[in-house]
Amino acid sequence: MAKKVVATLKQKGGVKYAKVVKAVKSEKTGAYTFREEIVTEDLVKERLK
User: Fold this and answer.
1) Which InterPro entries match (predicted)?
2) pLDDT, tens only, 7-41
């Protein structure tokens, strides 16, 4: 199934996606956790704010 999704993303004129990994600090323990999202390329800067 993953191959089918990848193949549809590579079509001409398709939307380009990017994986955003953001470190988030916990208020209770002070440890960092990582949050991963797959967003379109035009929303990358907005998600990193």
Assistant:
1) DUF4295
2) 555 666 677 888 888 888 999 999 999 988 888 88
